[in-house]
Amino acid sequence: MTPWLAPDDPTDGSDAADDRFVDALEDETDNPTGRELRAAIAGLDVDARTTLVALAWLGRGDYDAAEWRDALAAARERGEASASRYLMGIPLLGDYLADGANALGISVAEDEALGLHNPDVGAQRDA
Fold it and tell me: Which letter does DSSP use for residue 22 in this model?
C-alpha cells in the first residue's frame, strides 16, 4: 500500500460501537463502503446521475430551488465525466444531498422512516 493511502490508524483495534463506525469512511482503495457507493452511482441512468449532481449543487448553495432547472442544465452540460468520482470527492456530500432535497420540499428523513430507501420494503408490501 502506498504511504498516502495508508489507513489513519491501522492498529486501532476499535469497533463500530467504540468509534461510531468512522473507519468505514476512510479513504482507502479497498473501502467496501466506497465501492458500494461508487457502484450505486454508476448503476444509475444518465438522467438520475445528472439529477444527483444538480441536487448536490443545490444543497451546497450553488443554486437555489427557484434555479433548479438551471442546475439540471448545468449538470447536463458537465458531460459524461465520472459522476461517482466527482460526487464522492465532494466533502459533506450526504449533507448537501439532504439539504438539496429539503430545498425542493423532499423530506429524506420521512422517506427513510417509510422505508422508501429500501427496495425490499416495496416487495414486502406487495407480497
Answer: G
- Is there a contact between 90 and 52 (Cβ–Cβ < 8 Å)? no
Cα separation, 56 vs 50, in Å, equals 10
pLDDT tens profile 82-104: 899 999 999 999 999 999 999 99
For residue 103, give Cα distances in angstroms to 15, 26, 65, 83, 111: 36, 29, 6, 22, 15
* Triad 10, 83, 53: Cα angle to 5°: 110
Cell of 75: 449538470
Angle at 37 between CA 33 and CA 38, to 5 degrees: 115
Q: Rounded to an integer, what distance in angstroms lies between the CA atom of residue 117 and that of residue 42?
A: 17
Q: Are 13 and 19 in contact (CB under 8 A)?
A: no
Query: What global pTM score does this model have?
Result: 0.66
**DSSP 3-state assignment of 96?**
helix
How many Å apart are CA 78 and CA 97, to the nearest integer? 18
In tens, the pLDDT along 31-53 reads 788 888 889 999 999 999 999 99
